[in-house]
Design a protein that fits this description.
The structure holds two protein chains of two kinds.
Chain A (H helix, E strand, L loop, with lengths): L4 E14 L11 E14 L3 E5 L6 H8 L7 E6 L2 E2 L5 H8 L2 E4 L13 H12 L5 H14 L16 H13 L5 E5 L7 H18 L2 E5 L3 H7 L2 E6 L2 E7 H6 L4 H9 L5 H5 L31 H5 L4 E5 L2 E4 L5
Parallel strand pairs in A: 3-8, 3-9, 6-7, 7-8
Antiparallel strand pairs in A: 1-2, 1-4, 4-5, 9-10, 10-12, 11-12
Helix pairs in contact in A: 3-4, 3-5, 4-5, 5-6
Chain B lengths: L3 E12 L2 E13 L4 E5 L6 H8 L7 E9 L2 E2 L5 H10 L1 E4 L3 H4 L6 H13 L3 H14 L5 H4 L9 H13 L5 E5 L7 H18 L2 E6 L2 H7 L2 E6 L2 E7 H6 L4 H9 L48 E4 L3 E3 L5 H4 L1
Parallel strand pairs in B: 3-8, 3-9, 6-7, 7-8
Antiparallel strand pairs in B: 1-2, 1-4, 4-5, 9-10, 10-12, 11-12
Helix pairs in contact in B: 4-5, 5-7, 7-8
The chains are: A alpha/beta, B alpha/beta.
Chain lengths: 328, 323
């Protein structure tokens, strides 16, 4: 499997310095572990879904992969090169192979640039010598790919609806013909009927261009629909990683089980007879996370061992890894 | 007599670019102890419908029609009279609890204010009742936490505070406008469970506004589907889920991926929701409808009975063609 992996993340850690209100200037800042010891690999044409509650480090993980936030330690191996060890100038050639799509479609487009300029900008940045006629041809080509008419090229972002803006964002990511697109909550701000259009578009493009996707969302049903494998994060830690069917059919970690049972199913007969696993309380503070297993403060199965030892991330069946002391 | 009876409700906004018809001819009623869900995409008029009922429309909005609460007209009555009905009989909770609570004032103060103002009881009694109510919404250590400020609570806890506050005067009707949209799924499950329990304990009716079809399925008796300011379909939740008879309802149901199902491809509704400034003639859904016939672009369909158990739909195309 790892032979064909285009992206391998090994033991990635991201820390933020936080100083709380009322701290004196000389008080040492506290460390917040946003992403803790995350490893996975991704093949061409595959989709990795990342799910978890807000504040679990989904977006930080995505940003650390493209070096938008500095990592504390670990490796991000992209086609055999560790990106974290490279300087900014050395990273640049790889940047065009990894692109991103963001949550708020309107906020991620510059309101003063027209659509043609927005979509062409990555091309002008990475290939400054491209002749103007080529740029125009590439822009209209990629616009038709995402279902936008190319006579819209001279319009500005505010003239478009949310779903169309997201298509523009996708077109901008596609123009460099990337190998990997990181989608950070790409459909969360969209209405149900538009969300389905964008999800279908992403899946079509993936097949057509053999794209790898990292798909971050808090909506588990959408993630399961689009992903080949799913990673569940809790408080910056990986708790489970498996194929998307396996994770739904046989979730092993108590947190994944609760998360799946909390997702409402649009069918009254299923929903009213559902066995809901409630997790009480709120997410603990990431500034001083619980000792041992991070989930133990809200876990029904928690025993003494959970507060002492951090559970190892180990395989329970093929391609299904879990971090829990009681996963058998 | 129904608890709430809405007839021919219309809401208009006057804007610099023209008149926006946000809600068009909406009719529905709620019985005591019933949970009605209003479902629709953004801009479908679901929030404006309840804002009009409770006199919360923006200054450029106006409502016509009739809204009767316990037999009495409450649409466009004086603020003084409305203030009595709001909180005492009809309470409301909103999507974002942080913007609904005053960040400068302790929760205790914000809660007791309601009771002192509406029921004229002493501060001490009001505080006792407030603590009991925080207990009822399962906020741990309510005795101490009531003295905290809103920012000291997490999102889910804040929504619990809002719920507790809205229930202080034991309203007959609770309007919940996207109460869990800003929350994580695990917290959403807690809040919806809490609302269901409180509904049983207090015997109130609930109008639940949401765009999440999953939340509707588990938590409502009746549902109402809105699109472009109009009601598309209304009926028992179970009936609508098992046999959606309106093309828009069908479209919505097939557009959501299901966790317990693995479909290869989502079925989408083509196009975008209508611009309410220049709403299409005839049925507002006709430009996106795959069943549309010529009449759909000319005449607005009226709500008509599908079967005898209170199931209505607004569509020109016969039911048999759609099912």
């Amino acid at each position: 499997m790892s032979n064909h992996a285009i992206l391998e993340v090994k033991n990635l850690k991201v820390n933020f310095d936080v100083s709380s209100e009322g701290d004196m200037p000389w008080t040492k800042a506290k460390k917040l572990q946003a992403v803790n010891d995350i490893s996975f690999s991704l093949n061409a044409g595959e989709t990795l879904g990342i799910v978890g509650e807000s504040g679990c480090g989904k977006s930080t993980l995505a940003r650390a992969i493209v070096k938008m936030v500095p990592a504390e330690s670990g490796e991000v191996v992209w086609l055999g090169n560790d990106l974290l060890g490279l300087s900014n100038a050395e990273t640049r050639p790889y940047r065009k192979q990894i692109q991103m799509i963001f949550q708020d479609p309107l906020a991620s487009l510059n309101p003063r640039m027209n659509i043609g300029e927005i979509i062409a900008e990555p091309l002008r940045t990475h290939y400054p010598k491209t002749p103007e006629s080529d740029i125009q041809a590439r822009v209209s080509d990629v616009m038709s790919k995402v279902g936008l008419l190319d006579n819209l090229m001279n319009r500005y972002p505010h003239e478009f609806s949310g779903g169309q803006c997201q298509r523009i964002g996708i077109a901008r990511a596609l123009i460099l013909k990337p190998k990997l697109i990181i989608c950070d909550e790409p459909v969360s701000a969209l209405d149900v009927s538009i969300q389905a259009q964008v999800v279908n578009l992403l899946m079509d493009l993936q097949e057509e261009m053999d794209l790898a996707l990292i798909f971050i969302a808090h909506d588990l049903s959408v993630v399961k629909h689009i992903s080949t494998k799913i990673m569940v994060l809790y408080l910056g830690n990986m708790v489970e990683l498996a194929n998307s069917e396996d994770i739904y059919k046989s979730p092993s970690h108590p947190y994944t089980q609760a998360l799946i049972s909390a997702v409402p199913i649009p069918d009254p007969s299923v929903e009213k007879n559902k066995n809901l696993i409630m997790i009480e309380g709120d997410l603990p503070s990431p500034i001083n996370p619980p000792s041992g297993c991070v989930f133990r403060t809200r876990c029904q199965k928690a025993q003494d061992i959970c507060s002492q030892d951090k559970p190892e991330f180990k395989e329970v069946s093929s391609n299904h890894e879990v971090a829990c002391h009681f996963n058998d | 007599m129904s608890l709430l009876d809405v007839k021919n409700l219309k809401v208009e906004f006057v804007t610099a670019d023209g008149i926006v018809n946000a809600v068009n001819n909406v009719n529905f009623s709620i019985e005591e102890g019933e949970i009605l869900a209003i479902v629709g995409e953004s801009g479908s008029g679901k929030s404006q419908t309840v804002f009009a009922m409770t006199g919360l429309l923006d200054h450029n909005g106006s409502a016509t029609g009739s809204v009767k609460f316990e037999g009495e007209e409450i649409l466009n009555i004086s603020n003084q009279k409305l203030n009595q009905i709001r909180a005492e009989k009809i309470a409301m909770i909103f999507q974002d609890p942080m913007t609904s609570l005053n960040p400068y004032v302790r929760v205790s103060e914000q809660m007791t204010e309601v009771l002192i103002h509406h029921q004229g009881i002493s501060k001490l009694d009001a505080l006792k009742q407030s603590i009991t109510m925080l207990d009822a919404v399962r906020i741990p250590d309510a005795n101490n936490r009531i003295r905290m400020y809103p920012h000291e609570f997490s999102g889910g806890m804040r929504q619990r505070v809002m719920i507790a506050m809205s229930l202080l005067c034991r309203p007959k009707l609770l309007i919940a406008d996207e109460p869990t949209t800003a929350l994580d799924v695990t917290v959403q499950a807690q809040i919806m469970q809490l609302l269901a329990d409180l509904q049983k304990d207090f015997g109130m009716s609930i109008i639940l506004i949401t765009h999440d079809l999953g939340v509707v399925a588990g938590n409502s008796d009746d549902m109402l589907v809105m699109y472009g300011g109009e009601i598309m379909e209304i009926g028992k939740t179970e009936t609508i889920y098992s046999t959606p008879t309106h093309p828009y309802t069908q479209g919505l149901m097939s557009a959501v991926p299901r966790l317990d199902d693995s479909e290869e491809r989502l079925i989408t509704i083509p196009g975008n929701p209508p611009n309410m400034m220049k709403a299409p003639q005839g049925c507002s859904f006709s430009p996106r409808c795959k069943y549309a016939i010529d009449t759909c672009n000319i005449d607005s369909p009226i709500l008509s009975k599908v079967s005898n158990n209170d199931h209505f739909r607004a569509c020109h195309v016969s039911k048999e063609k759609i099912l």
